[in-house]
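hey can u run this one w/ adenosine-5'-diphosphate bound, need the structure tokens asap thx
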Amino acid sequence: MEAVFTILCPFVTILKRMENKIMVEVAVVAPLDRTFYYTVPEEFSSRAISGMKVTLPFGKRTVTGYIVGFPDAQALAKDGSALKLKDIKDIPDPEPAFTPEILEFYRWIADYYISPLGEVIKTALPPSKGKVKKERFAAFIQSTEPPLPMTPKEEKVFSFIRERGRVSFKELNSEFNRPSDIIKRLSQKGVIAASEEEVSRNSIETEFRPSRRPDLTEPQMAAFSMITEAMNEGKFSPFLLHGVTGSGKTEVYLRVIEEALNMGKGAIVLVPEISLTPQLLNRFRSRFGDKVAALHSALSDGERCDEWRRIKRGEARIVVGARSAIFAPMKDPGVIVVDEEHDSSYKQEDVPRYNARDLALVRGKAVKGIVILGSATPSMESYYNAKISKFKYISLPVRVEERPMPQMIVVDMKDVGKKQIFSRQMTDCLEESIKGKNQALLFLNRRGFSTFMICSDCGYTFKCPNCSISLIYHQGEGVLKCHYCDYSQKAFPICPSCKGGTVGLLGLGTEKVEEEAKKAFPDANVARMDRDTMSRKGSHERILKRLEDGDLDILIGTQMVTKGHDYPGITTVGVISAETSLNLPDFRAAERTFQLITQVAGRAGRGNAPGKVIIQTFNPDHYSIKAASNHDMEYFYGEEAGFRKELGYPPFSRLINIRLRGNSEMKTAAAAKSLEKIGTDAVRGCKGMVILGPSQAPIYKIRGKYRWNMLFKGKDTGKLHSLVRNMLSRVIGSSDFRGVDVQVDVDPLNML
Ligand code: ADP
Ligand code: ZN
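ok here u go:
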């Protein structure tokens, strides 16, 4: 009896002590792969609900966290750990930051991407810096009694307010000279009331040009019926909408969303980067007006918060945004669209390293909604998923209004020579385009003037001191720049190694193409669009406006010009060097090349005049180039799938990359050795799991950090994940990794 008592006694006291305090499970915003327990002081207990933001003591610091659960108090009391729990410090907000449903989504992400829940939540929520914007208003008060006598000035302000009913102080200030005293007196006389109200910052231009709804083409109609039928069933249904460039995919999205709104549902539309393609956003706005909220990188924190709240309150029922829009607090998003689903910008390269395309499917499944992945060049993964019927496949095989696909001309540059930038065919086409008052787009996936500078006497090349990469010459600024960090130096004509004066330029960048185009076509209006010319706000819109107004003959650019644009004046597209993406040491190089060529070609001939595309390459027989020039995705898929299957790459397996990064070359290499041992131990006995590496990353050093990759391959996602988790728990406990970052990238896209 006594023994039982002594065991029970502390347990009972602890329970007593905890009685009046709620215990909470908190996800802390920190790189820690677990949650923590805290107690809530009584004064906050009414607000201790799931999703609340809290501040709490953490070691010596005060950190932010979120309540994600309520632990079993008895269990905590039993092992005594409840006694050690600390109180949270504060619950600053009146309302929770997220709902229990969305918390499930966060948990899924944290688990799948092996990322701390707190970091997932932080990524998903808008920045807390964005304060609610408030404005003061004066409103007329209806009264039956005759108004008290007013001075003429008061009378003037009063009648201004009475006529309008309600006026902001801002407007009164601009209308009258220092009206604040008058407003105060009017308010004391009881004829107006002053108030402070929440307002939205003006992120939306108020003018919408309502657009006409075209009659759907036959394939569009078929797609529309198939999708809305599934929507009516109210079950999760993923679609791959594979439509050639200009086939009218966007129109299908618009119609489906219209149906969703009629059914009381909302929509989330993901686009690669809307600040690059203002056209698309405009199409949504001209159809749905201020029901559309936009979430993109060009918004200020305040604007982002405003849009967020408009969505939360249900005022905006359609969100158009870049990858993080998948976290929008939209109630019942019956439709989730991922436009250009193959685009690599859907993958976040920081923790949590999620892919918004895949999260669209997860969220869509949770809400039993429709998910449409749209692309003219579906990713291998999505095309495969369509083939194995995981997705319903819908094809839009022709352009609208019977516009032909552009004619594709492949030029073998081996016959032209390395010196010449434009082949004869390219020159002829550009000339014809200029003469016909049409527009041409020239695409090269490299900024700057030349790829590198080399001394022809001693072979010295100019390298970045922080990165294992050549510096790129930018003629306009007269500097050598690193494209991986901020390093730049003045360009010298003299070799720093042998002091010789024969430093030459090799390779090609957009700046040089621009110079050559201006030389070859002196009367043409030539402009360039890349990260160098687009750094100022609004520069993008300006160039696109010139394109729209027909004020440009030739636009030269990087990837930026390949995406989504719909300008009917463009008839000619030139791909300067198709090799740039093909020669990268990445198993997706061929896929990227096929996608880039197809996408940029898709900008040609979207108006009444047919399009022409010239592809310059030293590799005319490569299947990615052949497939792109024949508009033949099926051929590309067949070739590429063969190769991926043989090497066990996605979509035939799953990958997880563990990347080590450290300032010390030796320590990082030692950590890689240790990782190899842990990895080999862990993988032993795991059937079907393969390890590649660890090996130095193709770009071994970036920003002064040495980088190693270790790639895990396996067919079984669950097993692959638990293998990596096991390994990580051993890595965390080992001193071999001190001073080295261990990054986990699930379904990596960038392996350089
Ligand atoms: P995609 O997204 O497949 O490249 P878009 O949706 O941008 O194609 O459509 C290409 C062009 O055709 C756009 O200018 C669009 O306004 C127009 N369009 C789309 N559907 C129709 C239709 N049914 N009838 C007439 N024009 C259409
Ligand atoms: Zn660098």
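The longest strand covers residues 690-702. anyway lmk if its weird
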